[in-house]
Amino acid sequence: MDAMKAILERRSIRDYLPTPLERSEVEELVEAASFAPSAHNGQPWEFVFIDDREVLNALNEGRKYASMLLQAPGAFVVCAKFPEKPRLPKGQGVEYFCIQDSAAAIQNLLLAAHAKGLGTCWIGDFDEDVLRELLNIPQEYAPVAVIAVGYPKYTPNARPRRPVNEILHWGKF
Ligand SMILES: Cc1cc2nc3c(=O)[nH]c(=O)nc-3n(C[C@H](O)[C@H](O)[C@H](O)COP(=O)(O)O)c2cc1C
Asked: In 3-state terms, what secondary structure has residue 33?
């Protein structure tokens, strides 16, 4: 699929068919994620794939915006390795590259999934302690997102976007 088409057509999917993902599909998505750029090619990301119904349901418990996990046949939990100290002092660039690196990887995963006919939803509504406990996430890693994944039941319309002439600044802000 053409990259621009994938970018423009991708939607957050919140209704899924029960069809499980093949192992090879999961691996292909993570390979796409791993081709994202990362500072110093640090690749500080790890991906936990979950298809256990009880765990998926547990990730929704007590959350407001994660109910698609009750339906989705799978989800990734994307974790980033945080250095002990910020990379640079405040004001000298972004403190932790690992969040940007992981976000780039997530977007690659979302677009690759869309190109393969899969749907995803990026979920920021999670309890870090619950994820750590359920998934055995080591202390030096932090979960940055849960990504629901599965074949879409339907594809919603595009959500409105701020127009380019509002967000693009030429030369000066
Ligand atoms: C960092 C981040 C966190 C998000 N968290 C949630 C979430 O917790 N629950 C949810 O339903 N959607 C979540 N979304 C999806 C956004 O609501 C969605 O991307 C936005 O409304 C635009 O819609 P679209 O993805 O279909 O273009 C999140 C997206 C991002 C990037």
From this structure: helix
Distance 74 CA to ligand 1 centre (A): 17
Nearest to 108 by CA among 23, 36, 43, 26: 36
Residue nearest to atom 2 of ligand 1 (CA): 124
- CATH number of the CATH domain containing 34: 3.40.109.10
DSSP state of 154: -
* Encoded tokens for 22: 């093949």
In this prediction the pTM is: 0.96
Q: Which residue range is the domain that position 23 belongs to?
A: 3-154
Work out the average pLDDT over 67-89: 90
| 124 in a structural domain | yes
Q: Which atom of ligand 1 is nearest to the CA of 13?
A: 26
How many Å lie between the centroid of ligand 1 and the Cα of residue 150? 16
Read off the pLDDT of residues 119-141 as tens digits, 9 standing for 90 and up. Answer: 999 999 999 999 999 999 999 99
